[in-house]
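worker-3 :: picked 2-aminomuconate deaminase
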Amino acid sequence: MTDKSLVVEGKATPRGRFPHVKVVGDLVFVSGTSSRRPDNTFAGAGADAMGVTDLDIEAQTRAVLDNISDVLAAVDCTLDDLVQVTAYLVSMNDFGGYNRVWDEYFDASGPTRTTVAVHQLPHPYLLIEIQAVAVRRPGRTAKEKS
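worker-3 :: tokens ->
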């Protein structure tokens, strides 16, 4: 049985001792993923000269799903291989924006999904974090799935 943990080069370094992705047999577990970039800035987050923040759930959701796609590609998977997703929102007021972006990536045959509200995430700029499970299809590579 394959058992592989990986911190993906070129992605934001995890803020703890854990991998971006762990493969066990045909199952692929993606750690909670945010919109954080490798330089520790955040997609969908900024502040003006006075320190007033501008947080965009749609930009953050898009960045999270793109980050998950990159992590999956590192183990020869794509978003099409996802079977289950858990999303953590700081505010259910962002549910509509999150859903609009979700619909850009998936249809009703996509992965099962649970969305919960949480008190906070590891940085005050974060509105969303997503954890995911995928299944590897033996004999196929990411290039064949594209």
